[in-house]
Write a sequence for this structure.
């Protein structure tokens, strides 16, 4: 969709941003290539409505896009603030590391009933992009206001590992917390090292049959010991965070339990055990992210046995239905070969997270519009890859990446069909953005300028690329 602007109170206004508050007109406009919030036509005593701004001629106020002004915007126009939506049938996380993707996401999610989580970032991503949760949320609020999107969106404090981080996100109004329990999951413990099972586990589970839809789950002593050894601490950690922040209902936020960031696969028995123990501990949660079999690597299709995947996720989905929550699929971008299965076996009820693919689409725009800048970045990424690899699990083979000296400008965008190039560019994003010579950024400023100039190209690319995800997941437009 092409952005529309119009002349309004002498400003080049974003048409869809024009709203009234009392007698005032509040809208966004561009001036000298910068975007502002403008307040016009307000005759009352609190003429600036609480915004920090400068007064111009004729009682018009011009406000910069600061954190304080984002807070005012969320207060006077509540649809610019995040809401809870993780319990809706289909929800999707859209980690926008650059703070520029929401307009494109809006173009897509205006047309369907999927609940979008426009703000979603982990602490690792905050650190790698030098951003704060304030920035992440404010960028979304401004985009939502500018585009007049009023259907509601979520904000996810993603993969949080500490009470301090959970509190940070919640205090800013984030409406979803993904608790990463991986530091408390004991992958390496084997069942033999568990000498005695607690009596409560024996009474509840040992040799009992749990019938979940068409599947019978039976805990042998060996399997029960394994469940207890691996997950007991993680369950206690999740219950502790729940009691600290969610039990009192002080915050309007949904709770996701993430047990996916581990080496060993979550078996259906382990999933059942963890969920059942959490529920017995009084923990209410909207989603669980198990670690599925095969590999969900960043930015590329599923790697593994799709038949086995279907068999296991069918049971995982049944367990989730049994307890009344949804499965959450992490690193969900670009998993085109398994999307139809996910949509089908979950009966259209799931949460799926994407992040890096939005960055890859932004880099594809660079390859299309400024080949020489793309070449510079590509060469730098090759030198930075070893460092970036420390943070991500990928199986990238740099030798499969063509020497770009032999690739024509017009063929550069097609590099984004090559999985090894995708992962090279995907995981080096933090190093690319922060790369400096002396004190100046080498790429960051040029990149943002390019993305500003090619905004519609990026929007259309996101509509197409994320749209393809939704289509294969079985989501239809309304
Ligand atoms: Zn995860």
């Amino acid at each position: 969709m092409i952005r529309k602007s119009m002349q309004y109170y002498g400003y080049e206004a974003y048409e869809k941003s024009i709203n009234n508050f009392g007698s005032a007109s509040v809208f966004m406009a561009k001036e000298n290539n910068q975007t502002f919030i403008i307040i016009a036509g307000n005759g009352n005593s609190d003429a600036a409505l609480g915004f920090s701004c400068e007064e111009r001629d004729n009682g018009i106020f011009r406000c910069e896009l600061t954190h304080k002004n984002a807070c005012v915007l969320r207060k006077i126009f509540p649809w610019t603030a995040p809401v809870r939506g993780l319990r809706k049938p289909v929800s999707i996380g859209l980690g926008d590391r650059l703070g520029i993707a929401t307009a494109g996401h809006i173009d897509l999610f205006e047309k369907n009933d999927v609940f979008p989580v426009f703000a979603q970032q982990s602490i690792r991503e905050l650190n790698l992009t030098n951003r704060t949760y304030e920035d992440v949320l404010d960028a979304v609020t401004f985009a939502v206001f500018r585009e007049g999107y009023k259907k509601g969106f979520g904000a996810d404090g993603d993969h949080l590992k500490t009470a301090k981080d959970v509190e940070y996100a919640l205090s800013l109004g984030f409406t979803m917390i993904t608790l990463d329990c991986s530091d408390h999951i004991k992958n390496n413990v084997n069942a033999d090292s568990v000498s005695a099972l607690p009596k409560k586990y024996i009474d509840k589970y040992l040799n009992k049959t749990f019938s979940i839809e068409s599947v019978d789950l039976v805990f042998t002593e060996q399997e029960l010991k394994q469940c207890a050894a691996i997950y007991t601490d993680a369950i206690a950690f999740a219950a502790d965070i729940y009691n600290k922040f969610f039990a009192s209902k002080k915050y309007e936020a949904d709770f996701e339990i993430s047990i996916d960031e581990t080496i060993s696969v979550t078996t259906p028995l382990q999933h059942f055990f963890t969920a059942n123990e959490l529920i017995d501990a009084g923990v209410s949660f909207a989603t669980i992210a198990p670690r599925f079999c095969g590999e969900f690597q960043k930015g590329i299709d599923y790697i593994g046995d799709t038949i086995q995947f279907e068999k296991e996720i069918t049971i995982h989905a049944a367990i989730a239905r049994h307890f009344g929550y949804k499965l959450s699929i992490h690193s969900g971008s670009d998993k085109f070969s398994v999307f139809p299965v996910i949509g089908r076996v979950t009966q259209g009820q799931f949460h799926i997270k994407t992040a890096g693919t939005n960055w890859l689409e932004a880099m594809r725009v660079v390859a299309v519009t400024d080949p020489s800048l793309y070449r510079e970045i590509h060469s730098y990424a090759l030198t930075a890859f070893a460092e970036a690899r420390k943070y991500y699990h990928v199986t990238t083979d740099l030798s499969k990446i063509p020497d770009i000296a032999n690739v024509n400008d017009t063929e550069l965008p097609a590099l984004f069909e090559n999985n090894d190039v995708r992962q090279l560019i995907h995981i080096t994003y933090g190093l690319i953005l922060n790369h400096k010579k002396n004190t100046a950024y080498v790429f960051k400023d040029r990149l943002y300028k390019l993305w500003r100039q090619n905004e519609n190209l990026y929007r259309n690319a996101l509509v197409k690329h994320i749209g393809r995800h939704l289509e294969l997941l079985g989501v239809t437009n309304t």
